[in-house]
Amino acid sequence: MTSxxxxxxxxxLWNRVRARxxxxxxxxxxxxxxxxxxxxxxxxxxxHLSAPTRFLCSWVQSNYADRILExxxxxxxxxxxxxxxxxxxxxxxxxLAPAVAEPAAPTASATSATPAAPAAPLQLAQPRLVRxxxxxxxxxxxxxxxxxxxTFDTFVPGEANEMALGVAKQIAAAAANNTVTFxxxxxxxxxxxxxxxxxxxxxxxxxxxxxxxxIVYLTAxxxxxxxxxxxxRQSALGFxxxxxxxxxxxxxxxxxxxxxxATEFGHTLGTLLTGAKQVVVAxxxxxRDLEMIDERIRSRLSGGLVVPISGFDLDLRKSIVQRRAxxxxxxxxxxxxxxxxxxxxxxxxxxxxxxxxxxxRLVAAxxxxxxxxxxxxxxxxxxxxxxxxxxxxxxxxxxxxxxxRHYKVPRNELLSARRSRDVVRPRQIAMFLAKALTSxxxxxxxxxxxxxxxxxxxxxxxxxxQMIKDDVELAQEIELLKRMLEE
Length: 487
Hints:
It is a single chain. The protein is an alpha/beta fold. 52% of the residues lie in helices and 9% in strands.
């Protein structure tokens, strides 16, 4: 397919998505929030949209990303993520860095998962490639972009994250002075508790202290994309050499690394540690629970400094809401009364991003309706965020543990290629529960279950749905598993 065909196909896809959104939300809501969105690109499983204002970026990302994702997945089930970034002068920065013609030339960095700020993303020092290695030419990349708002100054400290913050600051100070304290460092928590913020802050601090440092911040899917692209272009050696020349390597979303990319990361990790280079990794589970990662890599990560970030307590939630409210007050001139700050902190307990989203919604409600920011307005505006606290967040790791214990099947068997009945049925039930109880997409679930294709997951889900209809005892058994997971 030519690039023109691809462009036309994506344009047709976007027109169909827009039509679904308009039918689902109505003309008025569509005109307010969706009409000015544009599809920039569809890369791998990520849809990149752009909006003309920072406020619209933030509002759509916080409130309508799931609805847009659902509309896209009616055409393409592999779509897993929506990113909305700022469109300046009719142009938006692409999600992934394009290849460059010469290694010394600066490359465009990728957009962050959060809406872009007015300042351009931090341009990290570019690695120096060996000029006589023709395979390396054109394969340099800038890594994922660094969010200019995620610094140590904007990080809100509290009891839940004070150890992680202290370690991050110590790493940044040591790396800037060409020393290594802990290596590797692995930071883990559930979503929205500040892992990515700390990785970005480390990069900012080191770059500010020493602009000559080669710093690379990569999300796991970005790492996999570039590694696979390098293999396809027969330039993997250049890619490996590039990675091993960095002074500070930061890998985010480690749980999504898999296959040959995970193996290559293991080799790179070993080389960086041997050369006394600093490595910082973040994931949503402890190293021992990264089922898709090779045991040797898990062992390497566990052998470093493992730092958890626990759920936020009331005081920290209140500090976060107050900080965001102060920023909104300075920017828009609105007033957040103390009872509203207290209400949001007590009612929204899921994670930090929901706290940010809560403040954004109140700002939008005030700007659009002119209503004063009060507790009744918060109750009316934040209903779904408040309801979210009633259900426990279920992880795929939890499902694997419960199903393994219930059916007496080792977890590694659930992830294996074995096709015996005593393994296949529990595996299918586990995939069904993952689809029913988590927000993971079919491709993500497949990756967590031994690197299976999303069609395998879909077959398992439909199979279990049919079995539930035909077998009352099995239906009751699965309901029991659901209750166990949600307790």
